[in-house]
Design brief:
alpha/beta
Length: 241
């Protein structure tokens, strides 16, 4: 059974991806600072694969190398990595504390780069593997009071395309998914009028859901994604169409 690491997998998009990949037959290692009731319920349900929790503070980048080594020693080669963990702290740049800027960049940019470095080393040895980075449509469209968040998500796009060229020759694919506003997640803080404005901007007149992003991750992780690399797959119900 191939193993896949999914970071930030205790809720929202990360949890949906973890559940879908486990249902597709992978052994999913769901990584986050702490477990959640939702993940515990998902892990308890019979699936084609397996779903287990691993505690790690992904902002502590110094702990990532040991985590990658220990996971490989315990489970064998890691086939897939989904870099999903991140925060979307809002704030005008002029007013945002430097500490918050640093925290955003550490978790949203530095952490997935370091995680990829140590997990992809094993993929290179096996000459096979899949990496999926979760970016955002805001990386290309921008959004008021999310300039630092947008910068971190844009950095993942450049990272994805460049790493795809580094490791493609040895059979490893690297892609990104750019979700738009997702039902029950980014829209949770919107009032009804705000939600309707977001919906009205989409070609399909609805919001995408975590399961839609999970389906794209499963596609890229599966046979259908074997000749796709360096791509950014948008899942936004046509908001950027």
């Amino acid at each position: 059974m191939d193993s896949v690491i999914v970071t930030g997998a205790t809720r929202g998009i990360g949890l949906a991806i973890a559940e879908r990949l486990a249902a597709d037959g992978f052994h999913v290692i769901a990584v986050a600072r702490r477990n959640s009731e939702a993940l515990e319920r998902a892990a308890a349900n019979p699936v084609a694969g397996a779903l287990t929790f691993a505690a790690l503070d992904l902002a502590d980048v110094g702990a990532i190398p040991a985590f990658a080594r220990e996971t490989r020693a315990r489970l064998g080669p890691i086939y897939g990595l989904v870099n999903n963990a991140g925060v979307g702290t809002e704030g005008l740049l002029a007013n945002m504390p430097d500490s918050e800027i640093e925290a955003l960049i550490r978790l949203n940019t530095l952490s997935p780069i370091i995680m990829s470095k140590y997990v992809v080393r094993g993929m290179m040895a096996e000459r096979r593997g899949r990496v999926v980075n979760i970016s955002s449509i805001i990386a290309s469209t921008g959004f008021n009071a999310l300039s630092v968040y947008a910068a971190t998500k844009a950095s993942l796009v450049g990272f994805t395309r460049s790493l795809a060229r580094e490791v493609g020759r040895i059979g490893v694919t690297v892609n990104a998914i750019a979700p738009g506003f997702i039902e029950t997640q980014l829209t949770g803080g919107l009032d009804e009028a705000g939600r309707e404005r977001v919906v009205a901007r989409s070609a399909l007149r609805r919001l995408a859901e975590p399961a839609d992003v999970a389906s794209m991750a499963a596609f890229l992780m599966g046979e259908g994604g074997r000749n796709i690399t360096g791509a950014v797959m948008t899942v936004d119900a046509g908001s950027t169409a």
